[in-house]
Here is the input.
Amino acid sequence: MCLAIPSKIVAIDGDTAVIDVDGVRRKAGLMLVEDVCVGDYVIVHAGYAISRIDEDAALETLDLMKQVFT
Here is the structure.
């Protein structure tokens, strides 16, 4: 099973973003998405942002994931 995690973009440098999920920051490639900005939420799978997601949907998904995994 694969998981794609909603993540907030906190910085962008070329085709790479720094993303944040609950205080954990990692790098993710942006080659598969267009027109994303700092502050946007994206779905990240295998180190790449694969689509933009609405902030409300992202936060709801993250909340549900916390409930399942805790």
Q: What stands out?
A: The chain has a mean pLDDT of 94. The chain has one domain: 5-69. DSSP finds one helix and five strands in the chain. The radius of gyration is 11 Å.
